[in-house]
Amino acid sequence: MTTPSPFIPPERTLMGPGPSDVSPRVLNAMARPTLGHLDPLFIELMDETKSLLQYAFKTSNALTMPVSAPGSAGMEACLANLIEPGEKVVVCVNGVFGSRMVENVKRMGAEPVIVEDPWGQQTSLQKVEDALKAHSDIVALAFVHAETSTGVRNDAQALCKLARQYQCLSIVDAVTSLGGIELAVDEWEIDAVYSGSQKCLSCVPGLSPVTFSERAVAKIQSRTTPVQSWFLDMNLIVGYWGKGGRRAYHHTAPVNSIYALYESLRMLKEEGLEACWQRHENGHQQLAEGLQALGLELAVAPEYRLPQLNVVKIPDGVDDTEVRRQLLKHSNLEIGAGLGEFAGKVWRIGLMGYACKPRNIDHCLAALKRALS
Amino acid sequence: MTTPSPFIPPERTLMGPGPSDVSPRVLNAMARPTLGHLDPLFIELMDETKSLLQYAFKTSNALTMPVSAPGSAGMEACLANLIEPGEKVVVCVNGVFGSRMVENVKRMGAEPVIVEDPWGQQTSLQKVEDALKAHSDIVALAFVHAETSTGVRNDAQALCKLARQYQCLSIVDAVTSLGGIELAVDEWEIDAVYSGSQKCLSCVPGLSPVTFSERAVAKIQSRTTPVQSWFLDMNLIVGYWGKGGRRAYHHTAPVNSIYALYESLRMLKEEGLEACWQRHENGHQQLAEGLQALGLELAVAPEYRLPQLNVVKIPDGVDDTEVRRQLLKHSNLEIGAGLGEFAGKVWRIGLMGYACKPRNIDHCLAALKRALS
Fold this sequence. Notes:
2 copies of one chain form a homodimer. Chain A is of the alpha/beta class. Chain A is built from 12 helices and 13 strands. Chain A has 2 domains: 13-18 and 273-372, Aspartate Aminotransferase, domain 1; 24-269, Aspartate Aminotransferase, domain 2, CATH 3.40.640.10. In chain A, the strands form 3 sheets. Chain A has a 7-stranded mixed sheet with strand order 2-10-9-8-5-3-4, sandwiched between helices. Chain A has a 4-stranded mixed sheet with strand order 1-12-13-11. Chain A has a two-stranded antiparallel sheet with strand order 6-7. The longest helix of chain A is centred in the last third of the chain and has 21 residues, at 273-293. Chain A is globular and about 60 Å long. Chains A and B meet through α1, α2, α3, α4 and α9 of A and α1, α2, α3, α4 and α9 of B.
């Protein structure tokens, strides 16, 4: 075996379901010299990163930090810390990521009570309330805020209200929502949230910001069984990420990825969270009008459509793979394929974070027009 | 809250227990434009990265890849995939990381049979054999090759031979050994190994290269219970990282960190694995002579001392914290504190990967001399 060549990737425009385009500012920040994970200067950066994440989540939760792994690990971190074996959890399923939550709940020896709705539609509040009424021993309600597989926004505020009403914790997948649409952790009284770095925050993939309410922390601290994963046990991680005093080594933090996250959060703060949501909405309007002009139809009703993830029906007779191949080859443009039930039936056009700008939308529409003509 | 300033870290020399200094080549590679995790060009890079990892591990194992999280998650990936609840595992403990393995084994509902040796000494082959003899139902032998908390090299080759002899799988922590000292996965018939990106590979922290033998894969495929972690389930991950055909989405790979790992592995291949081991040995000799000249003593016997992690006894009357603070402040030099039983008693001087070079060793010795005078 000879040494292979350096890897010089082309400059794609990433308009799929994530990762989204990463700003050169973030890439540059990430390439700065590595510090030790217990270096006092790195500890300061951790504190600043926590503050910025609190801003992004609209929370004052003390336990707010990035899990050192992708969103799927953030999902496990939230579920495995809050739920003990044998406990019952209502899980709302209307796409791939709801199903993934079910799979996680089962693997930790807990019992999912599944509330299912069709792909492309919202989770039914009535069904959720019926499930909460039917079982008196539900400890948590878990759902996906922005379902990346379908482009549907579930009504997080109303769902969390139901959770409070029925005295159970709420666990919210905000992987694709954080930074893209309104999410108000404290106001909506959410108990645990996990997100991803590579969606509307436009950071590199590999981190999962999480936040836990005081109720959630109380539950974690009063568990009678250990969290199944040592790596994801918040009781231990808090010794490293927690406020004040001496930081205890738990695992080696992905130092350079945290430089990147910090820079992407700085960009969010500079723009302002509400302005960022509005930019996603504006981008969506531009894209939706352009798609309509091309005769393409969105799969999700306007009332609960995600601006940052546009699910487009593939017209009859059009070759899904060939169109995406052409976009990639001729325009260096990535859009997403359908997942699960939607495979072969839809494209997923992401307008996330740094990628959500008129230039990219113009380019995407023009490239789609070429590929379809 | 105002937007905080950009984070511009100083250029430290990292000679602690890891992360080690990262080459500018690796940092530059990491800052290249992000590709989608299913982009055909990224899939090619994944294949090349696998080949380079096979080279580094000295294995032809098909299931060789980086876990998308730090070494602690690699530990869980190996243990949780190979061991089912209720099964018995011999775990060798002579430092922090052996204890962490025990903790992991317990949390997955399996039963650790602990073989304990004093900190700073090797795992006793006799004790391990006694444990394997005493229990007829041991499914695996798990141990740490290079114990980062003590600077001890355990005899991986002999331990794996015992595992084969007693028909159980071997699970090896090679976090600090990979690239620094001899490790021959196929020749030693190791069944599962996990490592870390941030030690002798001198890549950024956040990835855990792993490799599984065919025997290990057979065990994973014939499990009667699901792996507790969906995120770390190799049965699923292999659909994304496996050879050939269509790659199925599992989780979003940390794309840019894999650029970095690829570049660090290219550097290893250019130098040559054996030459890299020799460089660590040479660096250790230089450091050991210099420490002796300063009147400092190494805590581990020469026969099983790790060249890449030198554990130095703190002389009586010397203020541990103050010396490390001075090194950091006046020389931008990080060395490691003692962990666990060794806290306050030793320093840990890492000579790992890119950091292991005469210039750094000269600097470290001179800075220590100043700090101690």
